Amino acid sequence: MTISLVFGLGSLRYSIGQFSNPGPGLFPLLVSCLLFLIGLLTVVRSRFIKPVHLDFNLKNIALILLSLCGFAVISEHLNMIAGIAFMVFCASLAGTSYSVVRNLKVTAGLIAIGLALQKLLGLDLPLF
After folding, report:
1. Which of 72, 124, 60 is nearest to 98 (CA)?
2. Within this chain, do residues 69 and 115 fall inside the same structural domain, yes or no?
3. Which terminus of the chain faces fewer neighbouring Cβ atoms within 10 Å, N or C?
4. Is 0.85 topped by the overall pTM?
């Protein structure tokens, strides 16, 4: 919540603009407000549920970091579709169950989102 507050207050130094003509401070302000709201809801919810012991599994942390770094490297040198597939299949190794069909569905969904961002919003994503 503190990090979202810092970025939200920092975004106020830029022009906010309007939704029809957004300024450079609008997007970071909206994202930081949403993150602050999620953090606030998490803190409120934590007051009503019983605490659960959290175990750190270094193997799972390493797998998630590897999937993110692999996504960045593969997207940079090959293409983003291959990076997405690597990230999904590698990160799912950290879960409790492994399903190739589920991984293919998640990969297809993320590729569809990437294509929508590329075609509809005109973002320069290296999908191919």
Report:
1. 60
2. yes
3. C
4. no
